[in-house]
Amino acid sequence: MMNVEYIESLELAAPADTVWRLISDVTRLSDVLSGMTALVIEGDDPTLRVGLAWTQTRVIAGRTGSERLEITAVDSGRTYVTDGGGHGIRYVSTWTVEPIDPSRSRLTCTFAGIPHGALARLALRLFGGMGAGATRDAMRADLRDIAAVVEERSR
Hints:
A seven-stranded antiparallel beta sheet has the order 1-7-6-5-4-3-2. The chain is built from three helices and seven strands, in the order βααββββββα. It has 155 residues and is of the alpha+beta class. A hairpin with a 2-residue loop joins strand 6 and strand 7. It starts with a strand and ends with a helix. The relative contact order is 0.25. 31% of the residues lie in helices and 45% in strands.
């Protein structure tokens, strides 16, 4: 099976706990991430926890699409993993915050695309290169958007 994985990381001029508070408040993500146009939480409890699910609408490479994501793992204060997808591809994203020193941290996003079925594997093989640039651009934009908010808070 042909999987794709991308890792993007950014050093932030903000403490790790400030970064964590922002990225773990899923209800605010559509206010922070410029590529996200809508976010709808499932259920009444928006607390970051295994099982928290939402549908997000994003614009990537000029195309708008909605995906359902669910938290599958949380190491509070450090990392969380979302799982979702569509069109025959499962998407797994991991957000990790690491302290560098008391006033700086590193935020890393890892994205994996896992095709299910022969058609999805063929599409990934044929068109994966085009999607790679758009995926990396979206990841970098998310990191920059988060950095702008947390660094402003840390001033």
